[in-house]
Every structure is written in structure tokens, then in C-alpha cells.
Write a structure and sequence with these properties.
Length: about 260
């Protein structure tokens, strides 16, 4: 049977409380056997860990997201270091830089990102990156603070930037955006990237698929994303499933 991984999904969010068990049961029927749940803010870490404990499909990551700077404190970095040692998350994330919003504080984001990269270095853990309008800055920081690798979630940069990430040991996440016919630039990039550098993700409940904008995105949509990727590449769905799953397992040390 086909074996798939959702490498980035916020199934811990409250809107999934009403149907999380049903979604997980259906995922197993579809062959989605591993789902990575990234942390966003410190106050949600405990809830995330408890939810991941309820299913062998779920793997926790812990991190402080750059879009929620007002929620983060220096003490949270201390707490993160302690939790990493105590619970051994699969990765540090979701971390990174987001310079898209005009109100962002670049230096505060850089300082937080750098601190979390250092924690990942110390723990020898991969990182899950959130990057918007900041790929060159992110790549430069990764060159200065070398980690064991990771995943650039929802990659939307250039082919040249993709190449730089892969040289640093990173994989590139592709989600529902490629199901949209108008996403020509991104579809072209993912048609040209080496398959050894690609992993699948939903970013559920965000990043809705084409013709599903009024529906809650879930990890049940991974097979649709797989089919869309197969439509723009030469490999079969079966080969893409195996290779993207092997990629994710390798980088995240999933058995």
C-alpha cells in the first residue's frame, strides 16, 4: 500500500478537536501514516505534546514562530531548551523569518531565529523553517549556524535559492498551492527540482487546495497534492510517494 507523510500540519489547533480522531482514522486508510505537528507558541506546546501522545501517527516539533513575536519571551527559549531535553521532539520548528508584513521587526526575528538554530545545533535536531520574503537572509544565517538539516516549509523561493538550501542539507516542502493552475511559477519550480529534495505537506488547516477554498484543509489531502505533483513531473505517483516519504523519514529520523 502507498505510504505517505504530511511533513507539516497543525492538527493540534482547536478547530480539529471535533473531528481529529476521524481524520486520523481516514488518514490511515489513505496511507498517510506519519504527520509532523510543528509548534507555534510556547503556551500551546503542552497541548501539542498531549495530542501527539494520543496517536502513533503524530510526531511533535517545538518552536517559536516568527509571525507571533508578541507572544514570545526570553524565558520561552529557556523553556524550549528544557523541553527539547525532556521530550525529544522530532525537530525544532516552526522557526524562521517572515519579512512579509510591513510591521515586522527584522532584528528581533533574526535574534529569535538565531537562538533557536543554536538550540537545534546543540540537540543535533533538524529544523522546520517558515520563510517569507527572507530567503537570502535565512540562507546566510544557516551558513553561519550549521544545523543537521531540515525542511523549508511551503517553499516559494527561486531555483537558485532551492539549490542553496539543498546544499545546506534542507528539503523543500510542497503543498496545496501546486493544485492551483494559476501558480505557474511554483509549479514550474517543483517540476524542475530534484525529487530527492522534495517532501509533501498540507500546512492544514491553512493553504487550501484548488476548488476547496471553502473547506478546512486536512492531512487527508496529501494524496491530492501527490497527484498534482505527479501531473507536473515525469515520475509516477507510486515513485513520488516512495521517494518523498523516504526523504522525510531520512531528514526527520522517522522509523
Amino acid at each position: 500500500m502507498i505510504n505517505l507523510i504530511d511533513s507539516h500540519c497543525h492538527l493540534d489547533f482547536q478547530l480539529f478537536d471535533i473531528d481529529r480522531a476521524d481524520i486520523l482514522a481516514h488518514c490511515q486508510q489513505l496511507g498517510v501514516n506519519h504527520i509532523v505537528i510543528p509548534g507555534v507558541t510556547a503556551d500551546k506546546w503542552e497541548r501539542l505534546l498531549k495530542i501527539c501522545d494520543q496517536s502513533e501517527l503524530l510526531h511533535p516539533a517545538l518552536g517559536l514562530h516568527p509571525l507571533f513575536m508578541e507572544h514570545h519571551t526570553a524565558e520561552h527559549l529557556v523553556d524550549l531548551k528544557k523541553l527539547i531535553a525532556a521530550v525529544e521532539p522530532i525537530a525544532i520548528g516552526e522557526i524562521g523569518l517572515d519579512f512579509y508584513l510591513p510591521s515586522h521587526d527584522k532584528q528581533a526575528q533574526i535574534d529569535l531565529f538565531t537562538a533557536q538554530l543554536k538550540l537545534a545545533q546543540s540537540a543535533q535536531l533538524p529544523v522546520l523553517l517558515h520563510v517569507r520574503k527572507a530567503h537570502d537572509q535565512t540562507i546566510n544565517l544557516l551558513k553561519s549556524h550549521r544545523v543537521v538539516g531540515g525542511i523549508v516549509h511551503a517553499f516559494n523561493g527561486s531555483l537558485q535559492q532551492a539549490e542553496q538550501y539543498t546544499k545546506l542539507g534542507f528539503l523543500l516542502g510542497v503543498g496545496g498551492v501546486i493544485t492551483h493552475a494559476k501558480a505557474t511559477r511554483l509549479r514550474t519550480i517543483f517540476s524542475q527540482l530534484p525529487i530527492a529534495s522534495i517532501v509533501l505537506e498540507t500546512d492544514a488547516p491553512d493553504m487550501p487546495l484548488a476548488e476547496m477554498q471553502d473547506q478546512k484543509n486536512t492531512p487527508e489531502n496529501i494524496p491530492i497534492i501527490l497527484a498534482s505533483l505527479a501531473n507536473i513531473r515525469s515520475e509516477s505517483e507510486q515513485d513520488l510517494a516512495k521517494i518523498t516519504t523516504d526523504n522525510a523519514k531520512r531528514i526527520l529520523n522517522i522509523k
